[in-house]
Design goal:
The chain is mainly α. The chain contains 17 helices and two strands.
Length: 447
């Protein structure tokens, strides 16, 4: 829409109050939709979402290294519990954040979220600079605080769905969530690099990886690197974003639980993003425990592949529908988990597991979960009315955010064979549900 046309439409006028609401906005009506506003909102909120995933997975990137630092003494069980805490708080906070878009509006919600994410960044930067290990309770508290980044997702995605017509929501939400998921790869890639050099004249600590000479590490660097981006996120959110007056109180928003499709889509999204988030959060510990800390540099590949798949499949879901790709995702996750399981069972009694088989199976799981993430986000706006779709997106994301907590507990108390066998069964069940209700000819809610 040309600038003159946009100015001529009073529907895009902004109120004088602090929320700067867009009046009479309807993305499904070309005369009441401004694509410039929609896409600029998408890019600002996506920048914030990348930062949110960085904050959420920062403990997961630091904890495997903390156990090797002189003065720190973390058992494998304690490490898994620390990895679980961001998933626990992230899931709980997503239930809160899913209610915020209609209550606060996009601008206020995004600004508040960006401000809160500064807390865990500062906390983790400070705690790793202490000369000796602080209390385990303090580490748990900071790991829980990192869940703020995970919780924000359930406000960001529903808010974005208000800005785009249904025909473009697969692409828009796929781009936002896929690029946002890159935050996992970013933090997993940056942390091993950033801790390897001194910055601002600050002292480092000695790490003692198994079988290697002690090396100096600067664990405070990642937090220092990401803090300026958090400040930029606050400024961008407050100065550039607008809100759409989609208003509903908490009680009205909970009407989504009266339809079975809310629960079916919760199961589907728990398969896709629950597995993505859960395995991304535990990937480092899995590699370290089975193949040694020298392979931690490979951790970022899983989230990278899953994020790319989510971005690439958004347009394909707009073209072919989301239901069929959710079926593909379920079958693909099951087959990929079977490959990982084969790698665990085929180890000879006097031999070592195959890193190649393990990495191939894991990368394939991330790839197919990324396809499923794109597909389910296309499905929900097609199945539900606009306001309910936002609520369902927030709710399903909240449940799936428990993935890091669930998988940390599973790997802490169960064998890998049992865990990956369970994934196979669940993935095939979800594929069958998606085919019956959403993909087959004559499906009840074909999407």
């Amino acid at each position: 829409m040309a600038a003159a046309d946009a100015d001529a439409h009073p529907t895009h006028a902004v109120t004088d109050d602090a929320r700067r609401d867009l009046l009479d906005w309807d993305p499904n009506d070309p005369e009441r939709w401004d694509p410039r506003v929609a896409w600029s909102t998408l890019w600002v909120t996506t920048f914030n979402l990348v930062l949110a995933f960085v904050v959420w997975y920062l403990p997961g990137a630091l904890v495997p290294t903390l156990g090797t630092v002189t003065g720190w003494d973390l058992t494998e069980g304690q490490s898994y519990w620390l990895l679980a805490m961001p998933g626990l708080s992230g899931g709980l906070l997503r239930i809160v954040w899913m209610t915020l878009p209609p209550l606060l509006g996009t601008r206020r919600m995004m600004t508040l979220s960006a401000l809160l994410m500064i807390i865990p960044l500062v906390g983790w930067t400070w705690v790793v600079m202490l000369p000796s290990q602080p209390s385990y309770a303090m580490l748990v508290a900071l790991a829980l605080a990192a869940g703020i980044g995970g919780g924000a997702f359930s406000g960001y995605m529903p808010s974005t769905s208000y800005f785009f017509p249904k025909s473009k929501q697969g692409t828009a939400l796929g781009l936002q969530a896929g690029i946002g998921n890159f935050g996992v790869s970013v933090v997993q890639l940056v942390v091993p690099w950033a801790i390897g050099f001194g910055m601002l004249g600050m002292a480092g600590q000695l790490a003692r990886p198994e079988g290697e000479e002690p090396t100096q590490v600067w664990l405070q660097n990642p937090g220092l690197i990401f803090l300026p981006f958090a400040v930029v996120a606050v400024v961008l959110s407050w100065t550039t974003l607008r809100s759409i007056p989609v208003k509903a109180n908490v009680r009205q928003q909970f009407d989504i639980f009266s339809t079975k499709h809310t629960w079916l889509m919760t199961a589907e999204y728990a398969l896709t993003f629950g597995i993505f988030s859960g395995l991304a959060g535990t990937f480092g510990m899995l590699l370290k425990a089975q193949f040694g800390p020298g392979h931690l540099r490979l951790v970022f590949l899983g989230a990278l592949v899953g994020s790319l798949a989510r971005i690439c499949w958004g347009p394909l879901c707009d073209h072919f529908g989301g239901g069929v790709w959710t079926v593909v995702s379920g079958v693909g996750v099951a087959l990929s988990s079977g490959l990982v399981l084969y790698g665990q069972l085929a180890v000879p009694a006097d031999g070592a597991p195959s890193l190649t088989i393990f990495m191939t199976g894991m990368i394939c799981i991330f790839f197919f979960s990324g396809i499923g993430n794109a597909a389910t986000f296309k499905q929900m706006p097609m199945i539900f009315p606009a306001r309910q779709a936002g609520g369902v997106i927030g709710w399903t994301a909240a449940i799936a955010a428990f993935g890091p907590f669930v998988f940390s507990m599973l790997f802490n108390y169960m064998s890998r064979t049992v865990v990956f066998s369970g994934i196979i069964v669940y993935a095939l069940a979800c594929a069958a549900i998606a085919w019956y209700y959403y993909a087959r000819p004559g499906a009840e809610a074909k999407s």
